[in-house]
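In the current project phase, our protein records have gained a structure token line. A sample record follows, to show the layout:
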Amino acid sequence: MRWLCVELPETAEVRRRLLPDGERRRTLACSALDRAWHDEVDASRGVLITAQGLLMYLRPPEVRELIAGCAERFRGGALVFDAVPRWFSARTVQGRMQTGQGYRTPPMPWGLDAGELQRVRTAHPRITEVRELPPPRGRGFYHGVLAPVQHRLPGARNLRPTMTAIARFG
């Protein structure tokens, strides 16, 4: 396995100091929206792209372009990403998500409700499967009790974040 980490230049610098590049893992300083990173990937043995904590900070057209670019370039590959629900996205854009300590959640312009997952297929004709990955059972009341139930309730399904897998680019 080879791991290419694509980070903005400031983050790449910090990452390299903490985790120096090696034979099987390296960091590339560029935006995930810059398709130049595609040329750095050896897709001959398959590709798994992960985008946790990324897409929600992009504008909807950028998300669509990123997914379509991956589907176009990495035939036979897969993408795993997370998404916040639309209601949460809207509140962050309006500046209405704040913790008790005064921290304001940064704007997250892109959101995707769990019931909309199949819309991701429209980003590119090579996307052959889109499915949600169930979260592992966690600790505490929310992760251990509420989240597994919320996943199954139609009225509550779109209130929660999702972990999605585009299982295959055909």
Summary: The mean pLDDT is 89. The two ends are 21 Å apart (CA to CA).
